[in-house]
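I am still getting used to backbone structure tokens and would like to learn alongside you. Please make up or recall a protein chain and show it to me in full. Would you write everything just below, so we can both look at the same thing?
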Amino acid sequence: MLQDIAPSGELLRPLLPPNPYLTNLKLDCAGLDDSAIGFLLKPSLHDLSLHNCADFSGRLLSEIGNRCNHLRSLYLGSVAEKRGRAIHISDLQELLTGCSHLEALILMFDVSLFLRHNFARVWASASEKLTSLEIGYISSVTVTELLSPNLGSQLPSNPAQPSILPSIQKLCLNVDYITDAMVGTISKGLMLLTHLDLQDAPLIEPRITFDLTNAGLQQINQLGRLKHLSLVRSQEFQITYFRRVNDLGLLLMADKCANMESICLGGFCRVTDTGFKTILHSCTRLYKLKVTHGTHLTDLVFHDISATSLTLTHVSLRRCNLLTNHAVLSLASNKVLKILDLRDCRSLGDEALQAIGTLPRLKILLLDGSDITDAGLLYLRPSVISSLYALSLRGCKRLTDKCITALFNGCCVLELRELDLSNLPNLSDNGVLLLAKSRIPFFELRMRQCPLIGDTSVMALASMLVDEAKHGSSLRLLDLFNCGGITPLAFRWLKKPYFPRLKWLGVTGSVNRDMVDALARSRPFLHVACHGEELGADPYGTSDGLYTHDYDDVDEFEQWLLEADIDSDYEEMGDAENNDEMVM
């Protein structure tokens, strides 16, 4: 697996000789193009995952269909997104025809590039074994046409079983608009569906014919087979909601939700406590509940949750601004909670932390923007901090350096690997020094937008002793974007041998552009971001795979690449430092 670095074709070619036993390949293709197809695609592959394929053309799809006939699982990301690269419907047809054993297909790019009038017919040749399909972007009209039973006389007709994608159990789509027509077609056309994940991001406020209404919700899960349902309206382009859905829509849908295990609802601004409470009381098997932008969701939804048979392990209530400490007190009755996401619930304070402190199995705790204090964090010490894997305190503006002492002073072995201390105006280098002394082997540390963080913090983390003699060896991600005290001095401590496993670094490019560029050249497998973008593949985002990071030890291929230092680049970085010293 070479998914965390992006090797060039020159480096990768000798690592992938003909090998009839290679069945699994995961790769970041940001440094590759069509010239790599010959040594990448092996006939023996069963699982293939190629990310960041922007410099490839549609030929990648057709060649996979021609060369990899035994594939069971395929992931393709960002194919042909670079200007000048083309992708044609015939490429998709060769892929679907050639890979006749596919069971899972993920196309994380805009498939609306394909001609619509041929799109549905091409999918008629897809593997009948295909049970899972995910698409990065597709129009709702195309989805409706794809799954419509009236595709023409050339397709076989069998009313008992759809001719398109007959075995699909999991469908995940990003679309322009979630509509009644699309939802109804999916519900009627995919008879075996158990997992439905739909997200849209409207460019303009949708009209009624291009929107989801109560009638559309009533069509979902007509056969009662769904176990996971996610309906999310993203606000990526403008602030918009499902304005045509209210409590009645959820009441109608709840009638067929008895088998639901996971529900995610985002952007239902007209749904009140009545609708959300109906879902909780109807879905007796529910273990995962996610609600975002629940503008009318209050504490009353969870008031009597202890009287239900629910065993919730995953709860996310992001941007539900009416929630207070009382809701958390009620949720804490679920002692098996493992993930609790309360980001941007700004009325939560130390009383909520006291309740959270009684959850011994908690692994993920996200408290961004809450009103907690240093003293309140002490409630996590007795039984929670030792079990946590990820903790986010981003934007909790009342916290100071004392929060580090409150969390980690006197703690022994911790499982905590991801910590977000971003946007804390009172966190300084002194707090990071305390963090370094704790010797916790973090994988990810985010401290962006902290004005008092400076060079001393970088030096402390670089000199941090983990596993006895290894300096800062555990950090894979370090985000220092827009930290007020970072100067060119810090860049000397970002070179090897410090931070040997660092793969993501966030800095402010305006500190010294030459040094940023030189650092990127000297560490070719380090992703250096200097424009404020969030680091990592999906940092605390919305995908289900968010908390299932694979941090296995570096394999032999990756180790070989990491040890291949480029002396000339180090010389360039030294020159940049010297030039900077002369300027200063």
Residues 152-157, 542-573, 580-584 have pLDDT under 50 and may be disordered. The first strand starts at residue 24 and ends at 28. Residues 417-534 form one domain. The radius of gyration is 25 Å.
